[in-house]
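Hi all, posting the design record for the shared folder.

TITLE: backbone redesign
STEP: 1 of 1
STRUCTURE INPUT:
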């Protein structure tokens, strides 16, 4: 492919898109970022945008699309993003989509998972309170240590009631955005069922690359 990959990963909470974004980032040697992480970085750096955003994040409020897109524009202009990038979970609603029209992705990868399966996964999900790494209660438990030294917690919004609210928002607000990208012929739907490696291979194939040549490096 001649032009750099400009990838957007979408999917419901629990579809594993964060993990897949990291995997594909290492396979293709392009950076991956999520809006949440970019905003937290701005706050940590105490940049002018960070100072505007901090009170909103602390209050659990939505950051206006105009601010979010400003943060994104600055990240996309960094030298490491010139050969491609993965944007994890943005845009999520019409306002963000409209503000983001300056960038046309090459592929929108949509990880598909039923609500029941998403709920099942999220209810067993543990998150490191320091680095954000995701684990499962299949092989870890709350309070265990992460390799970074952090501690594994069961996030409040990974509990049943919050999960159904988040999935509802995904259906109402994000699915219409996916339809808009679909009309432009950019959407590649990939089943999020199965192992991390299986899903990774499906994404690599959806991008027109040969699977199997790339073990998920995580
Ligand atoms: Zn950690």
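Okay, here is what came back for every position:
SEQUENCE:
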């Amino acid at each position: 492919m001649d032009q750099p990959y400009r990838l957007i990963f979408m999917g419901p909470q629990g579809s594993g898109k964060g993990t897949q974004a990291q995997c594909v980032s290492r396979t293709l040697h392009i950076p991956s970022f999520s809006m949440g992480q970019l905003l937290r970085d701005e706050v940590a750096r105490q940049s002018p945008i960070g100072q505007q955003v901090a009170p909103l994040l602390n209050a659990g409020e939505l950051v206006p699309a105009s601010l979010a897109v400003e943060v994104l524009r600055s990240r996309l202009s960094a030298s490491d993003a010139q050969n491609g990038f993965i944007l994890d979970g943005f845009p999520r609603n019409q306002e963000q989509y409209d503000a983001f029209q300056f960038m046309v992705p090459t592929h929108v990868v949509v990880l598909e998972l039923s609500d029941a399966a998403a709920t099942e996964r999220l209810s067993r999900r543990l998150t490191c309170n320091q680095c954000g790494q995701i684990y499962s209660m299949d092989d870890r438990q709350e309070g265990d240590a992460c390799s970074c030294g952090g501690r594994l917690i069961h996030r409040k919004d990974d509990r049943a009631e919050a999960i159904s609210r988040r999935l509802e928002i995904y259906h109402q607000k994000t699915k219409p955005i996916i339809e808009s990208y679909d009309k432009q012929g950019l959407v590649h739907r990939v089943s999020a069922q199965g192992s991390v490696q299986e899903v990774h291979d499906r994404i690599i194939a959806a991008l027109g690359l040969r699977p199997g040549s790339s073990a998920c490096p995580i």
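COMMENT: The domain at 5-206 is CATH 3.40.50.300 (Rossmann fold).
Let me know if anyone wants the other runs.
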